[in-house]
Please model this.
Amino acid sequence: MNADLHCHSVISDGTLQPEALAERAKANGVELWALTDHDELAGQLRARNAAAAVGLPWLSGCEISVTFADTTVHIVGLGFDIDNAALRDGLAATRGGRHARAVAMSDGLARAGVRDAYQGALKYVGNPELISRTHFARFLVESKVCADTQAVFRKYLVEGKPGYVPHRWASLRDAVHWIVDAGGLAVIAHPARYRFTANEEYALFTEFIAHGGRGVEVVTGSHSSAEAVRYAETALEFDLLASRGSDFHSPEESHVDLGKLPALPAALKPVWDALEAHILQPA
Ligand code: AMP
Ligand code: MN
Ligand code: MN
Ligand code: MN
Model:
């Protein structure tokens, strides 16, 4: 099945509207789709309606920012009730610090000679509650400070660089509980991205499972094929369900388009088998 269960709209740090993503997913042959904006459900109803309009089976989704072992980890939630109050409140609290963080990022960039970055980033923000590093990256590309967003991250926006501001996101426990208590399935997003030691990674997986987490992304636009092989083994080792998603943000920036991913390795149990009752089938 061509499931794509990870992507972003203008409601977080993508560049397309939810309706355009649904159309693009359908055109690319996606057979099951979830929009997983960072820390925010404001696009979910639009995604659901747009999926129905183009005849695309749909799951609710989000990607929650978590701090674990002093590192930012992303937890994807799938198939939850989009009206669940505790989940909505938890996400509102998680995104609450973004404004102050963005102002501090802008101050750091100013000290490095990049002026008015906050105002510049705001031009790219679709949702005032969700200003992210990606929006700063787009402004620095526009200002010709760097050639592309990858270079901006490398030179300005990762730990140790002038625009990086440490931030405490949700706890792993809270994020998994919000998703599970709202009837959804929690998934560790793109595990290869965290650069954990073996011990830290073991702690992440065991604590995630202890809190009720059940899935891990194996095939994602954020993994190389070697990383997908490695995390297929991890999924088997921890008896986790496997997920698949492009992490598509933008036609201009993303290397992997919606639905344009290798299949999940056959030995794995896909998350969608456990989510059948949560899928909204088009009429
Ligand atoms: P934030 O939630 O504000 O910390 O921004 C995180 C987002 O920045 C991620 O969801 C990605 O979309 C983007 N991002 C993180 N690292 C990189 C990178 N090295 N290159 C390009 N985009 C990145
Ligand atoms: Mn993002
Ligand atoms: Mn992510
Ligand atoms: Mn993502």
Observations:
- The chain has a mean pLDDT of 98.
- The chain has two domains: 3-95+168-278, 98-157.
- Residues 77 and 186 are 5 Å apart (CA to CA).
